[in-house]
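Lecture notes, unit on protein representations.

Consider one protein chain, 233 amino acids long.
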Amino acid sequence: MQAGEAHSGRSERAPRGHLWIGDAVTTVAGGAVRIHDGVVPQDLSAVGWPLLTERLVIRPATPADIESTWQIRRLPSVSMWMTSDADDREEFARLYVEPDRLASTLVLVCDGVIVGDMMVAVGDAWAQTEVADQARGVQAELGWTIDPAYAGRGLATEAASAVLRACFVDLGLRRVYAQCFADNVPSWRIMEKLGMRREEYAVRDSLHRSGEWRDAMRYAILADEWRAARPPA
């Protein structure tokens, strides 16, 4: 990939009961679950959309965003890092409007133009059976895509930083993580800029559509780590 582009698109079949389906999130029935002394929502409705940063408007995706998003996702330098290829527009559109996927997708708008998208997949942490109800909906996986024409400007970091704050402040999550192919250097550099720590470097564990087994990386940050790194109010 070219330097400056940032795509965090690798989503793995996680072990020990985690629920992941490609780029989508599987929602646990019930809408919300109680964790510690608060309520953690199972969707993104608790966030006051849109999020406004210095240069971006970040809002939930709608079916009207299909064309703009597809035009970015179909680019070879982008799709090479994504879980699914986007050559077929009809198939892309069909998957885009699936309820769980649409509910976990955000679009990034700069000067009125969609310049990328993000995934916020809220899910369960692994837990032993007796305490599994306390681990529902307590973490999220982030993913991002930026139009190569807007790469190298720090937009992905700006967006991910705002969404990370929403995960901890508005959604009350305890942990957020992201993962990518190790060759996707701009993506894991964003993770490090966000203050995430590298949790895993897996050697040749992920099969790329090229037929090559590639290394993968996972980064994460806990809510208390994120708060500790914030300047005093």
